[in-house]
Design a protein that fits this description.
By secondary structure, this protein is an all-alpha fold. Helices cover 65% and strands 0% of the residues.
Length: 166
């Protein structure tokens, strides 16, 4: 009789494992996307957004339906945090969103790459050193960098600050 119970225990154990795994996956999905817990679709179309979400995300309206799921989720997170932001923070988000919406796909990819590179420089000394190098550049070069112009080759009589940037 002990042998007959083992197979049924094995089957029960497998079912319990599957149920536990399903529950864990559901919890993970809810953790990664809180909108699912509220009953919202994970990937809503523009017309399915609430009026406050559409108002906050207005700069993205023309391309919302073309965004991938991950991008929509990130922007919905911004919209969720938006009401708790200070007026200055809200204005900054709106300005950045408008600038982001105006970028071409190639420019967006370049921006993502630059962001990832800066994020990797988690050592504050490196970041501080880079900032000091930038501050030491002549105003025209800083303006050129801000405008996105490529860096020009330096002559051998470059200043000390310029030598650091290479």
């Amino acid at each position: 009789m002990a042998e007959k119970t083992r197979p049924s225990l094995g089957l029960a154990w497998q079912r319990a494992r599957r149920a536990l795994l399903a529950a864990l996956l559901a919890c993970a999905a809810l953790t990664l996307n809180p909108a699912l817990a509220e009953g919202a679709k994970p990937d809503p179309r523009w017309r399915e957004l609430s009026a406050p979400q559409r108002e906050i995300l207005a700069p993205l309206a023309s391309e919302w339906n073309r965004l991938d799921s991950a991008s929509r989720t990130r922007w919905l997170g911004v919209a969720q945090r938006y009401p708790k932001m200070t007026p200055i923070g809200q204005k900054r988000v709106q300005t950045r969103m408008k600038k982001w919406a105006a970028l071409t796909p190639q420019q967006r990819e370049e921006a993502r790459t630059k962001y990832k590179r800066m994020k990797r420089k988690n050592d504050s000394k490196d970041l501080r050193r880079e900032w000091q190098r930038y501050q030491a550049l002549p105003a025209k070069e800083r303006e050129a960098l801000a405008a996105g112009e490529p860096k020009r080759k330096r002559s051998s009589s470059a200043s000390t600050a310029e030598e650091f940037s290479q």
